[in-house]
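Example record for the data management plan.
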Amino acid sequence: MNKVYPDAKAALKDVPDGATILAGGFGLCGIPENCIAALRELGPKNLTFVSNNCGVDDFGLGILLQNRQITKMISSYVGENKEFERQYLSGELEVELTPQGTLAERLRAGGAGIAAFYTPTGVGTAISDGGLPLKYGPEGKPIKTSEKKEVRQFGGRDYVLEPAITGDFAIVKAWKGDRYGNLVYRHTAMNFNPMMATAAKITIAEVEEIVEVGELPPDSIHKVGELPPDSIHTPGIYVHRIFQGPKFEKRIERRTVRKG
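Corresponding structural encoding:
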């Protein structure tokens, strides 16, 4: 029951080449930055990453792109990373763009054991009709495109069939956790993390603080050992490894300076 590991490298040392990894976070908020740094040091190659986005050029998943460790991304937003754009358009990186809500539901379905689901999002576009460029060739032309998906009508409205997403590993960031792997996220840092945590064979959580079992949530409303039903965001049954990060940069993705 004690799932605590000494550090990120120890928790991630068995990630092989070619693994599919689910990475929590939204922009640079709530990303597992210590896990990402450890993966760069450990050096597994040909990785497929599922994440809302791919960080920025020099932080987040962007550092794995720079190190040529990622060969495929499944994401919904990729607009803040010039190296991502360069690798995609030059044919070095395969990219499966997915609407953000659909990405979230594909992960939730994967964690719930649901093979696929129907959604109206993307009907009548390249998402459902196929032809979305997945990979470019050296001459700048697509050499691999998305396939046409099944569309069915329910209640007079068209819906497209979307497959669930699962992974070999999930790396998530939480605020606090205990040695059983129970996790609590803080505010908007929750984002994609809870869904990622349920959808992988092995889930690795980095936290800012590891507390004793029964001390979550860490507030004055509840006594130690008295846990209301909604106090744990991710139950420990989904988490296989947990470690306390030594530091968190928590970089802001983009600063806006107002004049006047």
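Summary line stored alongside the record: The first strand starts at residue 20 and ends at 23.
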